[in-house]
Write a structure and sequence with these properties.
The protein is mainly α. It is 92% helix and 0% strand.
């Protein structure tokens, strides 16, 4: 009996490294899953940059791939779950054969369940961390998109404001030019009307015999000469 227990204990100790290695590989699966998702996301983003698909198609494709990987992972977790009924049955058979005592079988069964629960809790914790990381990244991407949209709107508003200011400035300049032209036309009309009135008065004075026609012509010539000098002086200023 003691020999059998010693043999069983030796076999258990020899197989522990292999079991630990297998469990380590299972713990590495979330890391590989994370890497696979990142690679898929990079390939999808590259396809968007090349113009092969739109951003909406990329989001739909990534969500679909993520869902498929989640389904596969859940299926694998179910297949990796130990069959405790089978383990318990084999331990009971070992007790019947005398390979180990009932207390040893219970202790071994309890230890196996404890180790499985630890692995499951660690895997759940890892999945929650990855889910939180994914949510934070999606939140940051949405914030970046909102910031870019806000910056684009502000840039467009600034550009529209500058264009309106430029348009208003041009409109004001045109109004000033039109006002100056109108004032100049008014002065010209007033100038011509005044000369017409003077010339008419001189003509009436000639007819009344108050002045001679030559004196009237000289007076008009002097007035025209004064007007020309005055205009030249204005232009020089």
């Amino acid at each position: 009996m003691e020999t059998r227990v010693l043999i069983l204990t030796t076999i258990t100790l020899l197989t522990l490294p292999a079991i630990a290695q297998e469990h380590g590989q299972k713990r590495d699966q979330p890391e590989r899953k994370k890497g696979d998702l990142e690679n898929i996301e990079k390939r999808i983003k590259s396809a968007v940059e090349r113009g092969d698909i739109t951003k909406e198609e990329a989001k739909s494709k990534f969500a679909e791939m993520k869902k498929m990987m989640e389904i596969k992972r859940n299926a694998k977790q179910k297949s990796d779950k130990p069959n405790f009924e089978s383990i318990e049955r084999r331990l009971k058979e070992g007790v019947k054969r005398g390979d180990l005592t009932e207390e040893q079988a219970k202790a071994k069964f309890a230890e196996m369940k404890k180790q499985f629960e630890k692995r499951r809790e660690a895997a759940n914790h890892k999945r929650n961390e990855q889910a939180d990381h994914q949510k934070r990244r999606e939140h940051e991407e949405r914030e970046q998109q909102e910031r870019r949209k806000h910056e684009d709107r502000e840039h467009k508003q600034d550009r529209d404001h500058e264009e309106r200011g430029h348009h208003e400035h041009n409109h004001t300049e045109r109004q000033l030019d039109e006002a100056r032209e109108h004032a100049e036309r008014q002065r010209e009309r007033h100038h011509h009307a005044r000369f017409d009135a003077i010339e008419k008065s001189l003509h009436q004075a000639v007819e009344a015999g108050l002045i001679s026609g030559l004196e009237a012509q000289k007076t008009m010539a002097k007035l025209h000469l004064a007007a020309i000098k005055h205009q030249q002086k204005k232009e020089r200023r």
